[in-house]
């Protein structure tokens, strides 16, 4: 719980003067608690895009955007990316502490026992067009999980909440891989519980029944790191969507489907696909200035994808790790001269020196380098955002669980500044 400080804030307008408490968290900016404002002052605050609004208390993830720092439960992302692995990070996000060995193996066993989806779901997939984007399929199928797993939809039962969390972490990768297999006309590949989380996902995506598939441990490790880097990011658009959907009492599967839908947009998780497509479109280093010019042109809607962030006004720490990973993976695969990587590096160099980007503090974000690694692994661009979605599922579910357990939680209901017509009388169609 945030602590009330001795400081207060006073808002004076018309003949009113209202005092508000100032709350402190464990680290980061204080907040002015304006919950009594409407009752006392008959006014709302106006903050489209929520640039100055803390929508909740949370003990999960901390970001210092100016310093470019990201911590899960206090642990810096760089340390986790180097020393931890995805399922351990899942445990940390869900339960607040790093697991001991027994807790880890119990958690791993619980997740791996839930990786298969209900067999009837296979038929559900067949209702989609083959050329559906895997994100479109995922929104539908994850939402439909509430039709398959009724015994974990009672949000008031802590055990059912726990089962739903494990089911989502375990099954969303299976659903993502199935969406991919379906889109390329190959048979679904069942999960293989002897493999680790990332290895299993590679297997479900790239194995075919006709041949043996051996998971490359280097690729599995790199993919696991991508999962870790995307696991949570405090109150971003998709997480806020999950919380808002959940605030009405909707079941967790419906809430996560809402999060997936929100993530898909190119300003959010869809940026990884859009970024790689942009790098390919640029194609050669000599065309970069043209795209920089377009990004700066106010009359051109084009933006440099993979650049800029609402919170980071410094390097996105995830992008730093991702860049190192890209060098490592492409080097190990013997494709360090990948033309897309060359364009990305040069674009980054030029943009970081350009006055426009420097002045607006636009730095590469997590999506700038992830696509290059995923492409090298053999994923088509349409799978980039589903991979983000499956990695973020743990963050969404941890935030949802935190919200349901919060005694101060109420339905999320923002207000508005109404600028439409004032009351008027209906006019019959003959007189319009
Ligand atoms: N290229 C060119 N100009 C940009 C860019 C960009 N990528 N990003 C921001 N700007 C400009 C923008 O035009 C505005 O200029 P002005 O002040 O002159 O109007 C200024 O910088 C501030 O931008 P904003 O749109 O007000 O900032 P925001 O916080 O609302 O948007 C953002 C953040 C991430 C949506 C935006 O930077 C963007 O569209 N980036 C490209 C998409 C992208 O890479 N998204 C992934 C984000 S990280 C992963 C995730 O969250 O899923």
TrEMBL record:
Reactions this protein catalyses: oxaloacetate + acetyl-CoA + H2O = citrate + CoA + H(+)
Signal peptide annotation: none
Pfam family, one: Citrate_synt
Family statement drawn from the similarity comment of this UniProt entry: Belongs to the citrate synthase family.
CDD domains listed in its UniProt record: EcCS_like
Annotated gene: gltA
Organism classification: Bacteria, Pseudomonadati, Pseudomonadota, Alphaproteobacteria, Rhodobacterales
Known pathway: Carbohydrate metabolism; tricarboxylic acid cycle; isocitrate from oxaloacetate: step 1/2
Protein name as it appears in the record: Citrate synthase
Active site (catalytic residues): 309, 367
UniProt cross-references to NCBIfam families, sorted A to Z: cit_synth_I, PRK05614.1
SUPFAM superfamilies associated with the record: Citrate synthase
Entry keyword Ribonucleoprotein: no
Gene Ontology cellular component list: cytoplasm
GO molecular function: citrate synthase activity
PROSITE patterns (alphabetical): CITRATE_SYNTHASE (PS00480)
Keywords: Acyltransferase, Transferase, Tricarboxylic acid cycle
PANTHER family, per the entry: CITRATE SYNTHASE (PTHR42871)
Annotated GO biological process: tricarboxylic acid cycle
The organism's place on the tree of life at top rank: Bacteria
